[in-house]
Amino acid sequence: MTRRRLPAEEAKTIILNHAKQLFIEKGYDRATMDDLCALTQMSKGNLYHHFKNKEVLFLQLLTQHTEQMSQKWLRLMEHTSSPSEQLLEMADLFGRDCESPLIQALEEYSRTLYSESESLTTLKEITEVAYTAIRQVLQTGINQGIFMNEDIETLSFGVMSTLAGATQLCLTKPNLSGDEYAALHVKAVKLLLKGIAIG
After folding, report:
1. Can you list the pairs that 141-148 forms with residues at least 24 positions away whose Cβ atoms lie under 8 Å?
2. Residue 2: pLDDT over 70
3. Phi, psi of 127 (to 5 degrees)
4. Confidence band (pLDDT; 50, 70, 90) for 180?
5. How much is the average pLDDT of 125-135?
6. Paired residues of 147 in beta bridges
7. What band does 4 get if pLDDT is binned at 50, 70 and 90?
8. Mean pLDDT of all residues in the chain?
9. Are 98 and 178 in contact (CB under 8 A)?
10. How far is CA 92 from the centre of its chain?
11. Which of 23, 189, 31, 181 has its CA nearest to residue 106?
12. 98 φ/ψ angles, rounded to the nearest 5 degrees
């Protein structure tokens, strides 16, 4: 029996969908390209034709995940008026994302990186998406006189650090629900907002 040759985009989609499940089930370290061959029923040559290695495949999944988060964020922004509410919505979104099994694999993957890793560039680009959104909301709040007129980079770093720290801590509490993760993130940002709000 001969296998039908799939169009490139269809093959990539199949590979990515199966790879996501594989990373969720086995984590980054234990997932192998051999496992992925078995799941997709594709040859190693076909997998490597589309993705150079497991790391490139994982980074593509993270990029897709970030794009989905960005779309959710943009939809929320349309329905939220004040910069304070927007930051709280972002905190809620970050918190709910702790429930994503892919985030657990990300934590495992990040331990494999070293300072000269080419992948750090991709991870920085992914982080920059959230950082830019935070910066825009804070600048709007400063312009409207809601937040103190502090250096925008310092404020953005403070908010991003709060959200990233809350996410790291939530990953140590695997038995919480998405609502509980979100509540922890929102409370952390509410405390932060008290410190940067004017009046």
Report:
1. 141/82, 141/83, 141/84, 144/83, 145/198, 146/82, 146/83, 146/84, 146/197, 146/198, 147/83, 147/196, 147/197, 147/198, 148/196, 148/197, 148/198
2. no
3. -65, -35
4. very high
5. 90
6. 197
7. low
8. 89
9. yes
10. 13
11. 23
12. -60, -20
More confident residue, 149 or 104: 149
Q: What single letter denotes the amino acid at residue 129?
A: V
Who's near 138: CB < 8 A, 6+ residues apart?
83, 87, 147, 152, 155, 156, 159
Residue 167 Cα distances to 37, 100, 106, 174, angstroms: 33, 11, 12, 11
- Model pLDDT, residue 87: 95
Distance (Å, whole) CA 176 – CA 171 = 9
Q: How far apart are the C-alpha atoms of 43 and 79, rounded to whole Å?
A: 47
Give the SS3 label for residue 197.
strand
Q: How many residues does the chain have?
A: 199
User: Can you list the positions of beta strands (E) in the chain?
Assistant: none
Which pLDDT does position 78 carry in this prediction? 85
CA 80 to CA 164: how far, in whole Å?
22
